[in-house]
Structures are given as structure tokens and as C-alpha cells.
Known about the structure:
Layout: H1 3-10, H2 15-23, E1 27-28, E2 32-40, E3 44-51, E4 57-63, H3 73-83, E5 93-98, E6 104-108, E7 114-115, H4 116-119, H5 125-144, E8 157-160, E9 171-174, H6 179-182, H7 199-202, H8 209-225, H9 235-244, H10 250-254, H11 259-268, H12 280-290, H13 297-303, H14 311-321, E10 330-335, H15 341-354, E11 359-363, H16 372-385, H17 397-404, H18 415-426, E12 439-443, H19 450-460, E13 469-475, E14 481-484
Parallel strand pairs: 10-13, 11-12, 12-13
Antiparallel strand pairs: 1-2, 2-3, 3-4, 4-6, 5-6, 7-8, 8-9, 10-14
Helix pairs in contact: 5-8, 5-12, 8-11, 14-15, 16-18, 16-19, 18-19
Amino acid sequence: xxxxxxxxxxxxxxxxxxxxxxxxxxxxxxxxxxxxxxxxxxxxxxxxxxxxxxxxxxxxxxxxxxxxxxxxxxxxxxxxxxxxxxxxxxxxxxxxxxxxxxxxxxxxxxxxxxxxxxxxxxxxxxxxxxxxxxxxxxxxxxxxxxxxxxxxxxxxxxxxxxxxxxxxxxxxxxxxxxxxxxxxxxxxxxxxxxxxxxxxxxxxxxxxxxxxxxxxxxxxxxxxxxxxxxxxxxxxxxxxxxxxxxxxxxxxxxxxxxxxxxxxxxxxxxxxxxxxxxxxxxxxxxxxxxxxxxxxxxxxxxxxxxxxxxxxxxxxxxxxxxxxxxxxxxxxxxxxxxxxxxxxxxxxxxxxxxxxxxxxxxxxxxxxxxxxxxxxxxxxxxxxxxxxxxxxxxxxxxxxxxxxxxxxxxxxxxxxxxxxxxxxxxxxxxxxxxxxxxxxxxxxxxxxxxxxxxxxxxxxxxxxxxxxxxxxxxxxxxxxxxxxxxxx
Length: 488
């Protein structure tokens, strides 16, 4: 059945869809009219809605009554950090609000796609490689922004089908990324979906970049083999099998999965996070080496993005970021709210990632605890470097534990030692050969707490971090645009 048939079934076109839309006219917050129910999950229900203020359609997710969502300023700032994410493989999230009965909801772009386990034909390896590479690229963007997806599975990958049966998919969207933790739920209680959640998160550990890679591996296993990686008669047996080791390769081999992809999937599903690929970028690069369908289309779309009114600033930032050690280490982007600073940083992050540069991006306003932004950077860099944090004798045990992922704070007396460690972790191993050092993008940098600001100042001036580049976006109109700034 062609595209028209699909649309008629899901209610976009055809009389059945119109009758259902007319029958459903509930209004949320006086602004959104619910047209029809799209689906339901563990957190709540999703509806197609019309925004009466713009006349456009969107997807509205209404959480279950009684959802633990504190209407605090912190929660809203954290959610706003998620809404700044813009990437072709990540669904755009728009607004958080409450209906008249106090039930929380959020809105996002409506994507008329198909869940990946229904969209991909068995044995269509070109389509699978295309989807896998796009999802890996989307995870790169999420992780660079400090967001963990936390629940990767086939139903959370929405595939935009081609115009005709057999055509390569037009794209992919990652759904429900990181929102369980942001929307007031204890991060440690979010276990994900059995069979797809990493063993360490099932045991109660904090979700991480590595646990997202496990979820992607489990998703690719299911899509390639047309069955889950682990099957059992009951949940307890399923979790025990998952904890005991990686899944067997036989289902993948019987499905004709390319050997290189089989090995990558099994590595991603290693029970020990240290045995998985280092990050989503490594996964994407391996996929691109395996199959031509994994290469270029997403990159071409990323490079075609137009940052309206900021083209000169973007060109200047790209040129500056590629410069050697003699250039200023910090660039500040200033402007009024809504001037496009976040979009500028997002495009710079995408282009830098395509050039092979490691990027860390933070929304500084999302951190309320002392040293929160500094701790987020240290955790990321330690993980990327594969550092043995426990062996750092220069740091006290509580600080080492905090960087390793435990609850806690950084000791204020250890700024110099923390800067030394960060400089070692971020310095490229082949720096003498001209390898690019990481790029650090700080959105809402005026929201940095004093401790994080002092840590960054130490690191900016550190002799071993001379190639590290910092871009700080902040409100303010002194001169506007992008300019060098020696004083952090």
C-alpha cells in the first residue's frame, strides 16, 4: 500500500480520520485541541493536537495523573535545556505545561513516521545501516548536550518512509529522550525497558552514555534478527539472562546479518560498560566504514542548515575553532534572549562533530548545585579518556566518587588538582600531530555558579589545555555577536 493508504489508516487523510478528529475536541491549557490519540506508553498518552495560537499540528504527551513533576524553576530550566536540542535525528521538544486539572504535559514536533520494527524489512541491510548511523549521530548530539536518552528501543525510533515501497527511508527521529529524569522522576528509578536497558541500570546505577549504547545495540539486534536479543517466560528470567552475559550471535547469523555488524552489536551489548565502544561517534564511524548507506546523507543535511542572521558569526567561530594555540582560547557570543545564540551553538556543535572534533555542550542554567557544571564536564571528559578516577591520589575520595558518578560534590580546595586532571583528559593523545582538541560550548554561561566559573578559569589558563576552545553564550548586548574574551 502506498503513502496515501498509510495516511488514511493513521487519520491524516480519509473519512475515518476526520470523523475521529471531529469526535475528539478536548482542549488543553486553552491552547491545544486534541485531534486523536496516537499511542500510549509507561509515562502517559500521546495525542495529535492543533496549536490554536499558530494553527499548526504538534504531538502532545500528557503524563499519567499523579506524575511526580514538581513545578519548580529548576525543573523548567532543565526542560528548557532539552528544548534547545535541534538535530535532524532527534524529535524537537517545544513546551512544558499543566492542564487545568494539574496533569503535566509537553509538546513536540509531530512526525508522521512508522516505528522502526514495523518500517524496516527483514534483510534490508542498506536501510538498517542508514537508520543505525542516523541514530548514532543523534546520540552524539544528545550526549554533547549532556542529555541521556535512557530508553532506546525500536518503538522509540520513528522512521520516515520513502515515497515508494523499497525506497530508502527519508530519515529517523529519536523519541522520548531523557525526559523521564527531567520530568521529576528519580533518575535512579528509571530502569528503561527490560531486554533493552543496560544491566548496570537494571541494577540501579545511573544511566550513562554507555547504557545508551547498550540500548542502541539491543535495538539493532532486534531489527536485524526480527526478535529481541533476550527472551524468557517471565521478567525475572529475562533479567537474569541479560545479566549473565551478551546475547548469542546465532539469531543474527541466521538472519544473514553482516559479520562486522554482528560483532559491533555484541560489543555494544557487553555486560561491562568498559567493554563497549567508547562513545556514539565511534559507533557511527564504524557503521560508516561497513556500508555506504551509513555515509553522508545526514552530514549533507546538517551542513545545509541555515542559521538565519548568524552566518558571519558562524563562519568566524568555525575559523577561530580551527586555529592553533596562539589564538584566544575563549569566544563569547552575546545577545538578547531569542537572538539565536543557542541555534548558533547547536550548528557549531554539529559542524565540529562532522569534522571529527570532540564537543561538550552544556546548558549552564540547568545546574543548581555548587559546581554542577564543572562536575558534568569532568564526568564527561573522564569517561571519554577512559580515566581510572579512583587512582587519582591528588583528589580526596569523595571528589573521586563524585566524578565516577556517585552522588556528591566537588571539594572547593581542589581546584588546581581538578584543572590538572581535566587538562590531561582533554589533551589529544596525538597533539603533536595536530589533532583537534575538544570544543566546549556553554549556553547561558551567565548562569555558571562561582565554583564552576573558577574551575573553568583555571582550565582556560592551564598550560596543558592551550588547544582547548571555549564558546560561551550569554545574555547581554555589549557589542552583540561573537567576540574574543580574555576574562572568563
